[in-house]
Fold:
Amino acid sequence: MEMSRTDDNKRGGYAKIVGGMVIGKSENTEEALDIRSPFGVRTPRTEYFSMSGTKFYNYNWNEAAAFSTCSHCWHDNNTDSGGRTMFVSDLYIDESTVQKTVSYSTPFQTIFKDATGGMTGKGADSWYLPPNKHLLVDSCELKEATTGIEDASGIVCDNTYEARRIAIHGMPANFFGMRLKLLPLSEADETTKKNDGTLQAFLDDEANYGIVPFKMKQLPM
Structure:
């Protein structure tokens, strides 16, 4: 299931999937699917989309995943700058047959607000976020990672946090094409680092930064 835009329904509760069952493979699946990596639901590149009471099974081969994000955002003429919030509740994702919850696609920024915790495992009003280094703070953890953030399906956080989209407009021309680097200063014990001189080392280490790619097209806003 895929929805690209919700422009005609700019109000929560209209553009939605309710009570679905999404199955990646079954006993009569064609062999041609073995070389593919399908996704159960691809979310739109706009706001006001929700899903409730939906179950996911049998996404356990190649790069298959329950979700993919930002429909048609791979194309610069159709893309969005990302960070849109999807609202989910009462989801069931079968851990024994779903190897990856979210396969993030360009521009890798979609936010999921989980009202009941079925997607995140973090309880009510929790968050499923893209695997960006600056989002990995206290009470947040990597989801389905084997060795590190590069292998994570995403980052899950409990309701002590609020995830919000930030958009920057009207940048000077000399910033064209530049990536945005974000640093989670809350992860540094600033008092200690200022006293012993290691704060600067923390700031200088690019491995501590999250990276947001530049996207020229940012419509709809």
